[in-house]
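re: the backbone from monday

yeah here it is again, tokenized this time
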């Protein structure tokens, strides 16, 4: 069933399958930050991100969000539809943290109402620069109506994700999404949604429970991700 390696990224490997429309994503134990400048391997991280992403995508399916996700295959791998990925990182911010605090001098925790949506051009050599819509049309060839759809979906997904995480006792501070086109031309949510790609703060204590524990060296990555998975399992099962 699992075919040859198609692509290896920083956190996942992508494999062909017998079906040309489907791929297997294999989550690695590696964690990187600052465009790969900080790197470490954490046994068990791949399992945690695979299981967390699978749970989150299933919850989004219940809210009728269209994604590339088909099913988890085992502890570290999932089956997805093949998409032609739009090379954009779509970031939605509910509160200030990370790059926006440095770039614009905004204090951490500042509330954004409405949420701020930012586009970054997915290009490691250029360090994923912040771009505007016209840059995106030029650099990625995306059409105006598809970019509008991406933004609408990202803000809707923000509402669903905020609620999913709130039920797990977590505040969704910000997150990054990627979108891709299926072979029939439909645009769907792709990639992963995990503590690697979201900032999640404990609702009661404000403790950081995401990749910032690794970026800032303030805690155990796997213990933190294990707690996120447990909380999601408890809150999804309790529904
Ligand atoms: P930033 O504050 O560094 O711009 O990150 C915003 C959000 O996007 C945060 O939740 C982490 C996530 N993110 C990724 O998933 N991949 C990346 O390469 C970067 C820079 C951020
Ligand atoms: N994902 C990026 C990297 O691997 C940056 C980050 O998440 O902080 O370097």
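seq for it, each position gets an aa:
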């Amino acid at each position: 069933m699992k075919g040859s390696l198609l692509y290896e990224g920083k956190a996942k490997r992508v494999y062909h399958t017998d079906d040309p429309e489907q791929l297997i994503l294999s989550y690695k134990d590696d964690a990187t930050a600052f465009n790969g400048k900080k790197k470490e391997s954490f046994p068990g991280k791949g399992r945690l991100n695979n299981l967390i992403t699978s749970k989150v995508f299933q919850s989004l399916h219940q809210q009728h969000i269209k994604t590339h996700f088909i099913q988890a295959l085992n502890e570290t791998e999932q089956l997805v539809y093949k998409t032609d990925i739009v090379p954009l990182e779509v970031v939605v911010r509910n509160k200030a943290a990370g790059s926006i605090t440095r770039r614009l001098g905004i204090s951490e925790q500042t509330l954004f109402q409405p949420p701020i949506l930012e586009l970054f051009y997915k290009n490691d050599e250029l360090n994923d620069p912040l771009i505007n819509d016209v840059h995106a049309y030029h650099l990625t060839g995306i059409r105006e109506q598809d970019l509008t759809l991406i933004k609408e979906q990202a803000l809707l997904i923000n509402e669903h994700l905020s609620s999913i995480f709130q039920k797990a006792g977590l505040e969704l501070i910000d997150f990054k999404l990627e979108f891709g086109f299926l072979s029939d031309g439909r645009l769907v949510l792709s990639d992963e949604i995990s503590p690697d790609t979201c900032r999640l703060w404990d609702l009661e204590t404000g403790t950081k429970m995401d990749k910032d524990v690794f970026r800032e060296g303030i805690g155990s990555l796997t213990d933190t991700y294990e707690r996120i998975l447990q909380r999601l399992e408890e809150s999804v099962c309790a529904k």
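The first strand starts at residue 2 and ends at 8. DSSP finds six helices and 14 strands in the chain.
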